[in-house]
Amino acid sequence: MNFLRSIFLAITMIVSTGSAADKPKDSTSMTLNLSNQQLSNVPEEVFSHSSLEELWLDDNQIRELPNAIAELTALKRLSIYKNQLSVFPKMLLQMATLERINASQNRLESIPAEIKNLANLQVLDLNYNELRCLPDELGELHNLRFLYLASNHLSILPQTLQNLKSLAYLNITHNGINALQEWIGEWNNLVELRMQNNNVSSFPDSIGNLKQLKELYAMNNQICVLPQSIGCLESLRKFMLENNQLTTLPHSIGYLESLTDLDLRTNNLHSIPETIGNL
User: Fold this and answer.
1) What does the pLDDT look like over 25-78, one tens digit per residue?
2) Distance of alpha carbon 45 from alpha carbon 43, whole angstroms
3) Which end of the chain, C or N, has fewer beta carbons within 10 A?
4) What is the CB-side half-sphere exposure of residue 223 using CA atoms within 13 A?
5) Residue 7 above 60 pLDDT?
């Protein structure tokens, strides 16, 4: 009983912020944080607040979300990090208002094709799950800007991801990915790529198309050669290549005029091109 009272006190405090003249009663923005409460279920009372926009359920013992969560028709941000979900909650796929989902550190084994229904989704965090493949339909999330897939069991990315034209950040670290395909050159707005701790042996020539890329983390792979097109990354500031299999560097690496950090430790370099003096 005391716990439920604390929930409603939290909601009341948020709703009462500001005067009635500041905003209409029905448009009050609400945030509710129920993280680290040892919850195994979401309290039913939560679902009566249809104006709730942000819900945090992190670090609990929740195994599934009830269908009633779909009644939160204004919900934009949901975080259910560090719980015990093994199946992606299908009722979320009906909630077109969602802009951010953090479902990291669960036990998810797959993502349903209906993920494409979340047309407004901008951030999807699936780090630290049990994913072995991704649905092709993930490529239909045209507003997606941040995609976190670290520490899963992925060996390949579906080609449909080339359609994620708004993608600015991708994290695929700690998987079993052995190759990047030519189509990654379609990510014209990509700013940061984290791909360390995989089995990638080379970059495709199309890597040079990523004109907005500022940070590229590729440590702990099997990279043995860099394409000449790497020199076309005019915005690149950080290029982390520690612990790979490089023996030489392309002359074009000296064309990376924005570069401030280049890590080549623990490779097999026999020489470096004179152009590196331009950096």
Assistant:
1) 344 569 999 999 999 999 999 998 889 999 999 999 999 999 999 999 999 999
2) 5
3) N
4) 28
5) no
CB 201 within 8 A of CB 222: yes
pLDDT at 16 over 50: no
pLDDT digits 0-9 by tens, 189-205: 999 999 999 999 999 99
Looking at residue 137, its amino acid is E
> Would strands 146-148 and 52-56 be described as parallel, antiparallel, or unpaired?
unpaired
* 1 pLDDT higher than 50: no
- Collapsing DSSP states into helix, strand and coil, what is residue 47? helix
CA–CA distances in Å: residue 96 to residues 21, 59, 92, 115, 125: 29, 25, 8, 10, 17
Three-state helix/strand/coil letters over 189-207: CCCEEECCCCCCCECCHHH
Q: What is the Rg, in whole angstroms, of the alpha carbon atoms belonging to the chain?
A: 22
Q: Find the mean pLDDT for residues 133-153.
A: 98
Nearest to 238 by CA among 266, 218, 254, 223: 218
Q: Identity (one letter) of the amino acid at 114?
A: E
